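Closing statement on the S-adenosyl-L-homocysteine sub-project.
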Amino acid sequence: MKTGKIILMIVLTGCAVTAQDNRSEEMGFRAQRIKMVRQQIERRGVTDERVLDAMRKVPRHKFIPENLWNYAYYDEPLPIGEDQTISQPYIVAYMTEKLELKKTDKVLEIGTGSGYQAAVLAEIVDSVFTIEIVEPLARRAEKKLKQLKYDNVFCKTGDGYAGWPEHAPFDAIILTAAPPVIPEPLTEQLAAGGRMILPLGQASQDLVLVRKTKDGITTKELLAVRFVPMTGEVLKKH
Ligand code: SAH
């Protein structure tokens, strides 16, 4: 056998082994997601099948630093760099369920962070618009979402306070950073019949569900939470 052939065989065998390793690693992560949904999410009362399916499908580990992959499916928030965090899986599922999403909905997210919540939304609805104020995070998330083929997520770098008027109205809006007051442009960009969920407050925060009806806005406090603060323009408004 020629040396060239031998080298080629070694390289090909190497590739096959790596591909197999990746496949079994991915199967391991999938098994962890199935367990995560059963033990952390369904057990706490989330029942919307579309949300549960999305949580089983989105590879959460791919949205966090590789040295934390072993913790990706733990019942905890995790650091994603730039002093920011990705929420605990249960909170992601809970907030998503409260938005009562339909396939045809258009959703706005403020606080792209890692892009994980946007991917979960993108499994359920036709289009997701997401805004991130910290540039390196915005760039990284956009690249990741593209790499994972989430072609129905549209990313923008900037202050989410102003929303995204060019694409308004939105059927649902989700904030994953806590403002001290509800940003008015976001309420304005909510469609009639639309739902918005956000962590509201500073030292103490509550998840609040806002609904826009033909008679105006209603708000309902759901549960106490702890999110990173929303920065930018909203801090000048209270
Ligand atoms: N949804 C994210 C969680 C991100 S944490 C995920 O799934 O990973 C909240 C994010 O909101 C942070 O990345 C923070 O930089 C961002 N943020 C804070 N204030 C903002 C603002 N005014 N506009 C847009 N993003 C903001």
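Strands lie at 78-81, 84-86, 106-110, 127-132, 153-157, 170-175, 190-201, 205-213, 216-225. With this model delivered, the sub-project is considered complete and its resources will be redirected to Aim 3.
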